């Protein structure tokens, strides 16, 4: 296909006008020189031959050099243009071995002499006039060139600054999270020294309650949060407000900060200026979002350690920043497509597909849209491994194509692709270090797995005697089964508890450790248990990974099956439940692991007055198994009360569960979550209450709304915690 004639102008223009900060700084230093150069760009000086190149004219055409000097003399102040001329002289010496004549050669031109020269206007310049004499630029042409460069400097400087604003926004958000965490830690440390009835604390308490009731705890629209809405989920209100601010900032900065000129020598009409500036703005902002997308999507995320927010919060941010960046990439690509087709039609658009930077950019946009399409909630939940494989492969190709897309800028934007790549590599290195910290001989960790069909639950016991750290409650681990047909797959599971005496020097490597160390040793080890230290996981089998794990665990039932596993962790945080007087655990199914993880420490804590566990279990056998092996005598403790709700109708016939301690109350049907929260708030009186939900999405949403409804109607200090893992 023959290259269109006007592509010779537009191609270098992509690079020339898109070099953001350095170009803007250069123009700002010597705008007069740039204006004279731009105005002379399409005038051909024939004294060096009609076929002479642009560089030959700039360095060897005496008529052009004198015309440039006269432009600087007439339209610039004294000394203006020296930096530009110095750079021009270096270029001519390097490439043509010809220095420029001294500037004082135009001293011989008087004002009358200049007035007699041929003055080139806009029409002649745009038509590519051929001259064989020294010329003078008309004031209209010079002003048009000056305004063009002034607008380009302003707009492209804003492109860069507004792109940086994306990163600054999230730095501010993380800083607020760190500050909030520090304030909470200081408040917990001083709580025993400050009476809540003092005049100073009351306003802060009232503001804290208002903030919890209207901002930090509620679902975005009042109820649905854990439950999906079609093929998507809605984050909590505080996250939604943060994302709304981010989206609003992106929209505003995509529309604001432009300067349009009547006679733009680069882009011509207002319409072309709008398409060009808008397309560049959205593309640049989209690319600046890349480091944030990759950072928030990694397991080993330094901002998780700083703020204490869970992986699910940053995963929500990851998805929404990616959605915004993808939409901006689409606008960028569509804008350039329209601009090119308007300029030269479909053939011209087809020619651009022969340019590396163009077709890689278009493909990057298509790949980003595919990633978005393959990241819907349904696919993540039902076919996670397929989602993960597509996510990784397509993301790699996005970075590669983006490197090709920005190659025209000679490395100026390469770091926006390399930073995500480095984040990804660093995440993998930290994953390996976590695995080695658990067991340096990572290939030789043997777990004991059992599966009882009556309970429909896998009990996995993993020894941790070789671990460099002490397992902490609330943490979760990624497990690989090395003997599995798909040994590369891993899934996260929350530790139910740790058993066995273990008193050698060790370190807690959970994600809240880097910011603040827990001074109270929340050890789950039973003093009377002389077994080797081991972690217990209670896993509900579904399909894919857990179904294969069920088959392997049940192969030798009732005897346990030995499984060789690879353990990566810990992840997550130990929640400050020991700071509350009262705790209400609302859990369903395998969510019982959450109270199990904290139960020993809370019972031993002098601060804790009451622990109420409301557990909905589908299978009677599962409830009996946990009561026998895990809850044990703790249920009979004065602090602990347990209500077990059996939800499977076929188990309603039995009047009681023989394997349960007498202190446990057995009910049939779903628990009345709002009523449980209301009763717990009433019983807490003026003390503190933590409501902890871990179970079906509906249970979590009911608990969240019930806590919000109670705030402002009680003297108790009520907090809500939702323990869940979301992809």
Question: What gross morphology would you assign?
Answer: elongated
* Structure annotation, total helices: 24
Radius of gyration: 34 Å
Cα-to-Cα separation, first versus last residue: 48 Å
What count of domains describes the coordinates?
A: 3
In the predicted model, the low-confidence regions spanning at least 5 consecutive residues are: 1-29, 501-506, 513-530
Helix content: 40-55%
Strand content: 5-15%
Biggest pleated-sheet summary: 7 strands, antiparallel
Widest beta sheet: strand line-up: 10-9-13-7-8-12-11
- Rounded average pLDDT: 87
Structural class: alpha/beta
Can you describe this structure?
- The chain is an alpha/beta fold and 727 residues long.
- It folds into 3 domains: 149-191 and 200-221 and 228-431, no CATH class; 439-572, Beta Barrel (Elongation Factor Tu (Ef-tu), domain 3); 577-722, Rossmann fold (3-Layer(aba) Sandwich), CATH 3.40.50.80.
- The protein is built from 24 helices and 19 strands.
- A 7-stranded antiparallel sheet has the order 10-9-13-7-8-12-11. A 6-stranded parallel sheet has the order 17-16-15-14-18-19, sandwiched between helices. It has a two-stranded parallel ribbon with strand order 1-3.
- Strand 18, helix 24 and strand 19 (717-722) form a beta-alpha-beta unit.
- The radius of gyration is 34 Å and the shape is elongated.
- Mean pLDDT is 87; it is low at 1-29, 501-506 and 513-530.
């Amino acid at each position: 296909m023959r290259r269109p004639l006007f592509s010779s102008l537009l191609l270098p223009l992509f690079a020339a006008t898109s070099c953001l900060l350095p170009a803007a700084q250069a123009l700002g230093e010597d705008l007069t020189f740039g204006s004279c150069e731009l105005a002379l760009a399409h005038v051909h000086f024939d004294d060096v031959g009609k076929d002479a190149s642009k560089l030959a004219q700039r360095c060897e055409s005496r008529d052009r050099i004198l015309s440039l000097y006269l432009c600087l003399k007439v339209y610039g102040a004294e000394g203006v243009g020296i930096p530009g001329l110095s750079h021009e002289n270096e270029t001519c010496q390097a490439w043509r071995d010809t220095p420029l004549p001294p500037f004082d050669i135009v001293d011989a031109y008087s004002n009358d002499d200049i007035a007699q020269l041929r003055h080139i206007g806009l029409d002649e310049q745009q038509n590519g006039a051929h001259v064989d004499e020294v010329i003078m630029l008309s004031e209209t042409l010079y002003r048009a060139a000056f305004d063009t460069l002034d607008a380009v400097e302003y707009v492209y400087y804003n492109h860069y600054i507004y792109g940086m604003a994306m990163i600054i926004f999230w730095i501010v958000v993380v800083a607020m999270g760190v500050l909030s965490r520090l304030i909470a830690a200081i408040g917990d440390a001083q709580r025993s020294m400050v009476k809540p009835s003092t005049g100073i604390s009351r306003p802060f308490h009232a503001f804290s309650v208002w903030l919890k009731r209207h901002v930090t705890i509620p679902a975005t629209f009042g109820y649905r949060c854990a439950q999906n809405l079609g093929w998507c989920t809605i984050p909590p209100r505080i996250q939604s407000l943060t994302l709304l601010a981010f989206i609003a900032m992106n929209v505003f900065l995509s529309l604001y900060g432009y300067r349009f000129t009547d006679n733009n020598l680069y882009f011509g009409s207002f319409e072309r200026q709008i398409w060009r500036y808008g397309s560049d703005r959205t593309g640049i902002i989209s690319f600046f979002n890349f480091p944030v997308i990759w950072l928030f999507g990694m397991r080993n995320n330094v901002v998780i350690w700083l703020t204490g927010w869970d992986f699910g919060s940053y995963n929500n941010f990851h998805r929404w920043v990616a959605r915004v960046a993808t939409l901006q990439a689409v606008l960028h690509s569509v804008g350039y497509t329209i601009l090119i087709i308007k300029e030269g039609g479909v053939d011209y658009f087809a020619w651009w597909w022969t340019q590396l930077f163009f077709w890689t950019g278009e493909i990057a946009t298509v790949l980003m849209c595919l990633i978005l399409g393959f990241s819907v909630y349904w696919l993540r939940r039902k076919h996670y491994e397929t989602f993960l494989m597509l996510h990784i492969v397509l993301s790699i190709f996005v970075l590669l194509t983006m490197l090709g897309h920005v190659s025209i800028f000679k490395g100026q934007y390469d770091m926006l692709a390399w930073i995500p790549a480095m984040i990804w590599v660093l995440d993998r290195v930290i994953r390996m270090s976590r695995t080695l910290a658990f067991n340096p001989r990572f290939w030789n960790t043997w777990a004991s797995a059992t599966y009882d069909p009556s309970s429909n639950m896998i009990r996995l016991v993993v020894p941790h005697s070789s671990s460099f750290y002490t397992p902490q409650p609330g943490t979760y681990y990624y497990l690989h089964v090395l003997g599995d047909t798909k040994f590369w797959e891993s899934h996260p599971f929350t530790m139910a508890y740790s058993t066995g005496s273990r008193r050698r020097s060790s370190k807690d490597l959970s994600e809240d450790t880097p910011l603040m160390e827990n001074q109270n040793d929340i050890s789950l080890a039973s003093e009377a248990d002389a077994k080797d230290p081991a972690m217990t996981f209670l896993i509900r089998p579904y399909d894919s990974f857990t179904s294969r794990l069920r088959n392997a665990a049940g192969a030798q039932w009732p005897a346990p099956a030995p499984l060789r596993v690879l353990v990566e962790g810990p992840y997550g945080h130990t929640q400050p439940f020991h700071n509350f007087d009262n705790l209400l655990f609302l859990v369903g199914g395998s969510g019982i692991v959450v109270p199990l993880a904290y139960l020993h420490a809370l019972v031993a804590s002098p601060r804790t007055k009451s622990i109420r566990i409301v557990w909905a279990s589908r299978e009677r056998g599962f409830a009996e198994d946990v009561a026998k092996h895990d809850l044990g005598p703790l249920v009979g403790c004065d602090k602990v009360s347990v209500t077990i709700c059996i939800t499977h109708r076929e188990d309603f016939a039995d009047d009681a569960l023989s394997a349960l301690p007498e202190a446990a109350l057995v009910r049939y049907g779903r628990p009345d979550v709002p009523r449980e929260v209301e009763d717990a708030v009433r019983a807490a009186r003026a003390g503190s209450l933590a409501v902890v939900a871990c179970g079906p999405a509906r249970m979590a949403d009911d608990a969240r709304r019930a806590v919000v409804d109670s705030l402002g109607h009680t003297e108790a200090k009520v907090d809500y915690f939702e323990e869940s893992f979301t992809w």
